[in-house]
Amino acid sequence: xxIRKILELDHxxxxxxxxxxxxxxxxxxxxxxxxxxAPDVTPEEIxxxxxxxxxxxxxxxxxxxxxxxxxxxxxQVHTPHPKYFGLFNPAPTTMGIVGDVIAAxxxxxxxxxxxxxxxxxxxxHLIRSFGVQFGYELDRVEGTFTSGGTEANHTAILTALExxxxxxxxxxxxxxxxxxxxxxxNQSHHSFVRAARISGLGSDAVRQIEVDDxxxxxxxxxxxxxxxxxxxxxxxxxxxxxxxxxxAGVIDPIAPIAEVASQQGxxxxxxxxxxxxxxxxPELKYLFDGIExxxxxxxxxxxxxSVPMGAGIYLTHHPEILRKTFRITAEYMxxxxxxxxxxxxxxxxxxWSRRFIGLKVFLSxxxxxxxxxxxxxxxxxxxxxxxxQELQATGWKILNRTRLPLVCFVDQQNPEGRTEAFLDTVxxxxxxxxxxxxxxxxxxxxxxxxxxxxxxxxxxxxxxxxLVQGLGEARKKLSNHASEDL
Length: 486
Ligand SMILES: *Cc1c(COP(=O)(O)O)cnc(C)c1O
What we know:
Helix content is 44%, strand content 12%. It is an alpha/beta fold and 486 residues long. The protein has a seven-stranded mixed β-sheet with strand order 1-7-6-5-4-2-3, sandwiched between helices. A four-stranded antiparallel β-sheet has the order 8-9-11-10, covered by helices on one side. Helix 6 packs parallel to helix 13, helix 7 crosses helix 9 and helix 7 crosses helix 12. The longest helix is centred in the C-terminal third of the chain and has 37 residues. The termini are far apart. The structure holds pyridoxal-5'-phosphate. The site of pyridoxal-5'-phosphate has 15 residues, from helix 7.
């Protein structure tokens, strides 16, 4: 056997495979809306399928691809489905899929400039373009592509630490006499707590500040907590402002928070992972006032911009701090790009070898243009409005206030309509009816609500109406059960 044919299959097989894949994907795109949005499956069922695959015999490539595709088709929540009203995971852009394929094939090593000058420059070009969209000054924008918002938020914590604690990089928390503290609302993403934990600060370092009736951080308690902590010997170093919370799509008042950060001498990080896309609309930009004053921003292209996962972006106004945070040298690293006036991505990122993440973002944006994206974002916001109207017209009560297409609601018609048990059952009924994928969450930790987010550019009025109909049927079924119980 020619060993070169073990890993790289021969030309005719490859051509057949590419063709097969293209046909499979086209079939999936054409049919996904007819597929049940969520599977009904047990771990045993899937494991039984995988068990015979013990890798003792090489399998046929086409058969193996077929097996995987069939299994994904049957056993996943279909985030590309227009009735997926879930957690920000979109239907992927065509150009994003193409980008991922090309990135895999050329496999550029984007750790260093000299290995992949085009890929590195393309990513830098994008970083600047996104920075400018958020109001950053062109010649001060720096940043890095990340696996997602979690890594971007972790990067924010690390850069903010670097700014405030010069000894941290070398000595770690051991070198600090005071406990570094992070401030964020109690609605902020759990990745900050995790970042605190894995940075060695510990989860107690995240001060979760209470919110007002609209779930926005309260400035009074924020300032009081900072001052109290400082008086007690703590070392506040960063404030996080949410620009579109995961729970309820809430945007904190960024400009006033920027004022607090500046008065207190703290780093301001804005977590705009999902909601940030709304800042690209001139008519909604006011919601993000002050974001241009932030020290850093998290944005996920794999959320509202519909780029395939994972495509996170970390942006900052402080290139020198970003580099100080991550620069380490080792013998095997190619010579520094500094003499070329170019950037080696590894000096400003948690990752070393990494995927050419920027390509799928670049191809999606280049082909849609900002204007294309604005149209899509507006459409999704309009679908969110329609959902709110249809829910209110049918006796559901909306509990979150946001312009973004994320709706948190409870049942007003049923005496049990605000209980977790009721809402859980409604969500389960809706999911199993195939009329939509929605979930249950809790606002300010204790108010259970149903949560539906227009995540998909394919979602149209008919999908919204089907969801509301499914909700109505679930509610009716539950009240019938309740009256039978009497
Ligand atoms: C999704 C999200 C994150 C985490 O991003 P991942 O890409 O899922 O790692 C962080 N913050 C907010 C507000 C998010 O919506």
